[in-house]
Protein 1
Amino acid sequence: MIRPEEIKLSSEENGKWGMVIDQDICTGCQACVAACAMENNISFVGEEDSGYGRAMHWIRIERFWEGEYPEVKMTPRQPMLCQQCGHATCEPVCPAFATVHSQAEQLNLQVYNRCVGTRYCANNCPYQVRAFNWRDYQRPEPLSNQLNPDVTVRRMGVMEKCTFCIQRIHKAQDQAKAEGREVQDGEFTTACAQACPASAIVFGRVDNPESLVSQLAHKGHGVKHLEELGTLPNVTYFKGG
Amino acid sequence: MSDNKTHADHGAHSAEHFREKHLMLDPLPRGQMNDMVMESMLEKPTWKFWIIFAFLSVVVAYFLFYKWGVLIAKGQGEAGVMRPDYWGIFLVNTVFWIGISHAGTFISAILRVFKAEFRRPFTRAAELMTTFGLVQAGFSIFMHLGRVWLFYWLMPYPNQRMLWPNLHSPLTWDLLAITTYLLSSTMYLFLPLIPDMAMARDRSTGWRKNFYRILALGFRGTEGEWTHLRNAMNIFAFAIIPVMFSVHTIVSWDFAAATRPGWSSTIFGPYFIVGALHSGMGAAAIVLAVIQGTMKHMKYFVRGEHFDAIGKLMLIISMAWAYFFFNDYMVQWYGGDKWTQQMLHFHEAGPLGWMWFAMLICNIAIPWAILWNARWRATPWLIATVGIAINIGMWFERYIIIPISVTINRMPFTWRLYQPGIEVPMGIGTVALFILLYMAASKLIPLIPVWEVQEGQMAHELKKFGRETVVSVSELE
Amino acid sequence: MTESKVVDLLAVFPDLEPAANAIEHLRALGVHDECMNVISGIPVTEAMLGRPHQWTNVPRIAMGGALLGFGGGFFLAFISPYLYPYPVQVSTQAFIPGPPTVVVLFELTMLGMLISTFVGVFLDSFFPNYRPMKYVPEISDGKIAILVECPNADERKLRMP
């Protein structure tokens, strides 16, 4: 039983964990996509379903171009993942409390085993970064041996999305707790940031003004996507710097 | 002088004329009406009936239940939903069937409250539409769930996890509202049915006698029973109206509460209610035309005046729908939000632009072109055709609001057109199940509330004002 | 029949007028209104037959149900969020969101009210009741029957009208 006075709402502008993505140095190599899929046991949906918009990547590299052929100009690639909004539109619409706000980590949690598959959260996500398990996808033989034991394997009919590699966060926290200290910035990073050869993705604690990620985030020309919706995203993008 | 004569002549004819036109002025002894209703119900089904019945049963068994099994076994991937169209035809059908269900309440509650006398013979036919339509809506929304076997997690009940449904979610409100509406409309269907069940009990034999005896609950018609029944029906008639409004408003909030361009609209509540009544009245016209055309003695109970009255309602509701549609469109267009602009352009000029124009033709042009004429309104096949057009138009409207609108979102990288899969046969399955339930009901329960018709006939009379004869109604209640 | 002192009579009339006359006659013979009951195929109001007002509990039961429903809604809207083992936060919305509580209270109040109205009819009319009762099928043909259940009355005298 919770007493009302214990309940504190977190609506601070700044979250705890954050990310900065520099689109200008992103090469579009898709290493983050592959690393994320391996780290988080993401299903391989196959060519046909992938072609029909059912690819289940938690991070995707969006490509755009300007102008008409032959005067085509590529614009910087845009890695898109869950923005871990402080004011998330996906959370209140779930009838089963399958997607809730973590007060400890300031992240949007997805509770796989609570999800009944109404898909309202995905519909209400302005960033379109939620992935639904449309089928029970098979893992061809050697792939089933590389599953990450720290991450739940999701089954058919369940929504999923980027967690900021919450299993790594917890591992680092456990380690720090055992050593009697706080988690340091840079102690660990997410799979996508780790895999990025150009270091276009930087992850860390945005609540620490000394951290690399908060210094980058305040560099001036950083933008948050769809900021006008008031979702308070925790991912900052650099473009045309 | 000659003028007077024609008036007198007219007067002599008019009593006969009124009798022919108005059921309420054409009374038959109650026993005879009972016999007619019983005969229409007990009439041995023709081979055509059985063929349609068998065909629909096969359609329901294969398209609804077998395909649903496939869907559950293989997952929502069998349907056409994907990113960004997470909601497809299942949701379209849910909204559509809830819309159909609104006509029953409109006819039997709103018209009862306002004592619109033309409602009397077809309140039950309309209430059956409500109940059976809601059954289809329930099926459609459960088909849509990714893990339908866990649907009970949405219900409020004490459990070991101490988790209650999320009351922030419009879907939870939806569940509460639709449950309330389904239960109350079923009870509201049953209450006025009790005296007719007693009537059927008194005049049937064999297993039917038992069937009606059980459903009549021992009703005799004592003063007390009638008083309790009438009081309850009165409470229901008033209370179910706000419930009906709340249901479709909450359905509209599933969309309006979201942040999507094209969905986030404050006028969706009334717009959806009017749309629901639009398709519901259209469906009522179809059902009445079918009942009148196929069942014995129904030409006595359902007449031109009833189609005429429904036609007028359809016309008014069509105008109201046009008003709300334009209101919604105008404000979205004027707002100038780039995503909304894109979406409106996609509605009209996208690959499914034909649907947008077909919607306007079916919902506005066809009703307005036909329903202004009193004689056309009174023609059953014509008004049923308008009803079909309106229902097609309203289905298109929901299709445009759901899968077509969500194609355009704020992440252009994900834009993709929805291609329906298993939803199409399953949707046809719900239509077949609706017709099947209705066919079975027409053979099992008296479709005409005879006691209400008799009550109306007692209250009506012709009255002369000077040289003119007019219909007059006494308030018996 | 002679042993039991209760006279149990069912008289069938074709129309309102003779039925109303018969009721007046019975009253003149000393039969109390409580001993009479009218059975009809359509709702006949008390005033038409000059009968005393019928008491019904349905509106009261409905109100009771509405209160119960409101209580259920109140529990869901205001108490259930405090029953979770840990605070569940969605977005930055309050634990007890304002406007949605109105929706929940409304729906459950209406549900409680309508179910209890329905149940009220059953309770007040003693439904379902499958015991054999004084009844003739002609009643559902629109005839009006007067049922006299009168202790200590002279049956022969009553048969006169």
Protein 2
Amino acid sequence: MMEAVVVKDLSKVYDKDKTAVDAVSFSVEQGEIFGLIGPDGAGKTSIFRMLTTLLLPDGGSATVDGFDVVKDYKQIRSRVGYMPGKFSLYQDLTVEENLNFFAVIFNTTVQENYHLIKDIYMQLEPFKTRRAGKLSGGMKQKLALCCALIHKPSVLFLDEPTTGVDPVSRKEFWEMLKKLKAQNISIVVSTPYMDEANLCDHIALIQSGKILSVDSPANIVRSYPEDLYAIKAENMRSLLKALHQYNEVLDSYAFGEYAHVAFKDKHPDLSKIRTYLEQQGVNGTDLKKTEVTIEDSFIKLLKN
Amino acid sequence: MRTIRFLLQKEFRQIFRNRAILAMVIVMPVIQLLILPMAANYEVKNINIAIIDNDHSSYSQKLISKITSSGYFKLTGYNFSFKEAFRLIETDDADLILEIPRGFERNLVRENGQKIFIAVNAINGTKANLGGVYLTGIIKDFNGEVRLQLVPPAKFDRTLSIDIASSNWFNPFLDYHVFMVPGILAILVTMVGGFLAALNIVKEKEVGTIEQINVTPIKKHHFILGKLIPFWVLGNVVFTLGLIVAWLIYRIIPVGNIFLLYSFVSVYLLAVLGFGLLISTFCETQQQAMFIMFFFMMVFILMGGLFTSIDSMPDWAKAVSQFNPVSYLIEVMRMIILKGSGFKDILRQLGIIALFAVVFNGWAIFNYKKTS
């Protein structure tokens, strides 16, 4: 099966010395959801803009649907859908007008590919005469997705589609992506949210323009080398300080209301640790083994 | 074609939903045409004059009443010494001092001649210049009258003199409205067209919609045409409104062919819109576009021959004006509206403007890149 996107040593340097994307390589299989996971400023948007032919790469190569992003940009433009991170539809046109407009400039009609957007558009239908600028954040995202889909793209690029969207809408949005995947549309999505990583088939963890790891979320979690423990205490700060000073601890960091700890010993003596913490004056501890998450893997990769 | 039609539909929708643009296109030109020609008047009236009459004769009285009744001068001082009169100049209460010497009437009658003294405050150059000229004219006129009284007509033939009688063509009463209105209309058309075009593409950049447009297979020239045509139509609307105001308020009816006028403006609008689009392809924000456009507009307007005649500019400035599209429009507007010039007369200007249109638009299309 041909790959939807192949990226090889792709680089982008701004102002001669600011490397935004540093020799990035990955490939996206047809009909899968591929996630670019990384914090703000990691270079996700630059990669998207190069893949959608908006930005010329400074090194390396990339193909989308078999077409080169530099040479065959014309073919790419008519077969990808792009949803930029910033809402970029015409705010002074209505929902319907925006959709019609994008259908026309892709030389198609709304009717022709209505089946693709039907599920999403039905929720927008009651507001179709409302101007896009007056829609709620979640509605705007749905409209943008409709506009990006209207020409039946083979690859869909979604740059941080759920940033600034409420949790319910985010969940809905991912449901929609799953349905699109079922239509054999390849989807490349970027997100700063680690919880969304599990919803992708493959993810690339990216930081400062470099890819730290590319694999399926399950494999990334599985390759985490140590067992991970979660500890809770009344006083988080003194707990972290105590863990930090403890020479049996390999790594420790705050993780929500818990602290995640990895120990040097494969089978650590938990009672010994509890006693140590009590000696240090850390009271009310609750220590248990925990599941490794993508976020833990990411933190681990970042520290290496 | 279908793409262009939809692009146009979209642009017009956006324009009609933006009240500020509509106001800018319709209300602003009308108001400016109502106010500016009234204010921008070259005629110098109300020149303040201080007179020192040392003679107090009937002739000096006659001269003074002739000056004050001319309508140009306002007698703000009737003084007894130059020092006193000069104080008025210093306090800006007088622009001119006329000193009539003692024995003015006697010497005029007996010795056939007399000198009088005029001092002009030249801080306001135009006013000083025109005031001096007007006053000299009045005195000359007075001189003629006096001669007619004193010298028997039979002897008249003995002195040779050239008498100049002038008549003003195309604007017989030297009405400044007639002169200013076509020029101001030219500037309005330029401003509305240029600014709207310059700000429009930049707005798409600023809002981010251009990102979405750029990933589509839309052709560059389609996109640019979609921007050009709506503003071209708006420019013609402004021009028509201006002509209506000129006709209703100033009774200016184009002497020449109105279709020729519209043809020229149509080509001209293409050039100005192309210029606006070109600027917008260089800018990232509306603020940048606004300032750059403003800079060029100032140069275009001040060197366009509306306020100061291009003929009286230094050679380098004349050369610069060759590249100023506004100067051609002002020229042609005056030619067709006031003089009734025909197609052949404006052929040169039309050719140059058409060249501007091709260059600006071509450059804009070339410079608008969908990939950065």
